[in-house]
Design brief:
Elements lengths: L1 H26 L13 H24 L4 H9 L10 E8 L2 E8 L7 E7 L13 H11 L2 E5 L11 H14 L7 E11 L1 H13 L10 E5 L11 H5 L8 H13 L5 H6 L5 H7 L27 H7 L14 H4 L4 E9 L3 H13 L4 E10 L14 H16 L1
Parallel strand pairs: 3-4, 3-5, 5-6, 6-7, 7-8
Antiparallel strand pairs: 1-2, 2-4
């Protein structure tokens, strides 16, 4: 009986591992890796199996001409419309023609509330208002804030700078109409995870130089992607096979956003897309030397330099624009940025992007609150209360954001 019970317990995990392995082979992905230190590794294997299975089925549907792999992925990830919330007023609106969803606490307030612009993750390719509904409801309820979730246009149909422009336009509209929503002009925050963290950083930099608008109170960047110059930083190799974001997919998403396709992905991964003089120029900001040694102990190997390919650079040279890669902004802009909260995860290819930006902000006198999930992985907060795939570490991360908001 004990053996039978043990087999029943292990069977789903074995099937999940098999499904993930088959899907990885079908998709031509590198071997994936579930580090023992990650939060609930068995559950993460199940999530991985679902993700890879979805990708494999999407590839089949694309080959049969029924729909594209990206369209199918969006359908699976879209989430479902939730019912009424007893503590929140929720309405779908448009700010400067950009779809948004506004969450307002029903409880009376002694004064004006803080306002939060939330930009969702998903590699600029996936994600929607419904996908992040539970996260935004939680932020609004727990921090007693007005939250505006922004549905920016997605790649590859809408290339850079479409997503950035939508987020900026929605933010400007909100800041010009704060009184209508009972929001304190001195307490407006931009927030985003992953690609949304990229967009929040870019919007924050733009608004820092806008004297016609109130100053942002803070920016909250949750495992943000902030540069596309170097996909060989320590975290990109240490976590290259850790879900939910593989190293190759990080470059794939950046190229989809930039160009609407992922041609030259291999050259970008190898670093052949940036001229030597430009790489030298940005080395003061994008370099393993700026990452604390304790993050390099998991076996970082120096790579052989690759030859620069001018034709590739011509197709990706906008990677050097701060609105696309905020880590490359000049010090004159960075030192004007508001108080910042940065969340990083140990088992995340984008970990070092966050660490490098933390250093840049601190070097320019910006106050930074840093929260590091030692057992976290990329995308863990987006799984909050999601179809049974929620992780305790993700809840801790989300609560750290709420605590930061309450401290403002």
């Amino acid at each position: 009986a004990l053996l039978a019970a043990l087999l029943l317990l292990l069977l789903p995990l074995a099937l999940a591992a098999l499904a993930a392995a088959l899907a990885a082979v079908l998709l031509g992905l590198p071997s994936y890796d579930i580090p023992p230190g990650v939060n609930q590794p068995a559950k993460l294997r199940l999530v991985l199996a679902v993700l890879l299975g979805t990708a494999a089925l999407g590839r089949i549907l694309e080959k049969t001409g029924l729909c594209s792999q990206i369209t199918f992925g969006r359908y699976v990830r879209q989430g479902r419309k939730l019912g009424l919330d007893p503590k929140l007023f929720i309405q779908d609106l448009q700010f400067n023609k950009v779809p948004v969803r506004v969450y307002q606490p029903k409880a009376t307030s002694d004064g004006h509330r803080r306002g939060i612009l939330f930009f969702h993750g998903g590699g600029w390719v996936f994600g929607s208002l419904d996908t992040y509904e539970k996260v935004c409801r939680y932020l609004s309820r727990e921090s007693e804030s007005v939250v505006v979730s922004v549905q920016y246009r997605l790649a590859p149909e809408h290339k850079y700078p479409a997503a950035y422009e939508d987020c900026l336009n929605a933010t400007v509209h909100f800041m010009r109409n704060l009184e209508h929503y009972g929001v304190d002009p001195a307490n407006v925050i931009v927030c985003g995870d992953s690609a949304g963290g990229n967009l929040a950083a870019a919007v924050s930099q733009t608004l820092a130089e806008r004297p016609d608008l109130p100053k942002l109170r803070a920016q909250i960047l949750i495992y943000p992607g902030l540069q596309a110059l170097d996909f060989n930083l320590p975290s990109y190799h240490q976590n290259r096979g850790v879900p939910l974001l593989f190293r190759e997919r990080a470059a794939f998403f950046a190229l989809q956003y930039l160009n609407g396709h992922a041609l030259h992905m291999q050259e970008v991964l190898e670093g052949s897309h940036i001229p030597p003089d430009m790489r030298l120029k940005y080395r003061k900001w994008v370099s393993p030397d700026n990452i604390p040694d304790k993050f390099k102990v998991r076996g970082v190997k120096p790579l052989r330099p690759t030859d620069f390919i001018a034709e590739v650079y011509e197709t990706v040279k906008r990677f050097c624009e701060p609105n696309l890669c905020p880590l490359l902004a000049e010090d004159a802009v960075v030192h004007q940025l508001p108080e910042s909260f940065i969340l990083t995860c140990e088992y995340d290819v984008l970990r070092d992007d966050g660490l490098l930006y933390k250093k840049r902000l601190e070097d320019n006198g910006v106050r930074v609150t840093w929260y590091h999930l030692e057992d976290g992985f990329h995308g863990i907060i987006s799984l909050y209360d999601y179809c049974g795939f929620s992780f305790p570490s993700g809840k801790r991360g989300l609560d750290s954001v709420v605590n930061f908001l309450k401290s403002l």
